[in-house]
Amino acid sequence: MLTDKVRKLQQSGPVPNLLVIGDLMIDQYIIGDATRLSPEAPVPIVNVKKEFTTPGGAANVAQNLLSLGARISLAGITGDDIDAVRLTDILLQEGINTDGIFKDTTRPTTVKTRVMAGSHQLVRVDREVTHPLGMDMQADFLAQIKNKIAEADLVILSDYNKGLFSEDLTQELISQANRQGKKVVIDPKGLNYGKYKGAYIIKPNRKELAEAAKTEKITNTAELLEAARIILKQTDAEYIVVTLSEQGMAIISQLAYKLLPVKATSVFDVTGAGDTVIATMVYFMAQGLDVEEACELANHAAAIVIRQTGSAVTTVEEILEDMGARD
Fold this sequence. Notes:
Keywords: Kinase, Nucleotidyltransferase, Transferase. It comes from Mucilaginibacter phyllosphaerae. The protein is an alpha/beta fold. The protein has 10 helices and 13 strands.
């Protein structure tokens, strides 16, 4: 039984040492009540009740891994500003190694501000610059990351299309990991999946997969398999793991297909759910579980976090409790 296997690993299994490389950001929430419209424009007036910020993007992946019990190194790019200080301070306080975070004076730290009335998001305001890194910074970044790849059990590339993952840098990171026998798991973004060639797992959602495979839409299993196999051929990945919202998650290789039905009983906020999925997958793979087992656990983890507001995290014990409640 999978729950028994996980409990045994928690007692005597290895503590995963994981490297997350990716686009870093801050998620800011402004939450209040909206009971009337502005006289200036047909928009709601939000009377603010509380505000909070959480690490987002690849930083949220790192937080998810930390909550599960892994040792984490985080690498990426921020601006050289007060938001970068806020972000690194939070991460250091939580025990996440930030030696791989570089500051780029040509961009601000990405901040996504969500204004919410109760549980309803009214607007999102993004402050960001997404141009590629300069060649000198790419070289410096790669030189710094080589040793971290060597120390890691597995490597996650968390791509939010904010400028870090140029094709050359992405390929060099994957090549470095493969030369050292480290599997690379990718949360992709954008249309150029060729840059992920050589990865072990690529984890798009349904919409991202359709766009990358250049298909109009994915509405059934046949279309899903066709799109996934286009990407498998393009990237030589071992697996495509597709998150399917209300339908759950699909695991696709050249030889097999498996659908894991959705575990959520209610949905409050899907922000960061993809980060939780990839973090949980990699954590349990690093402990020695196979891909299907790791995805089953990730499916339960996603069900937990989407019941909460913001980029939430979960624990192994909560995952086991969720699985027990559905047995």
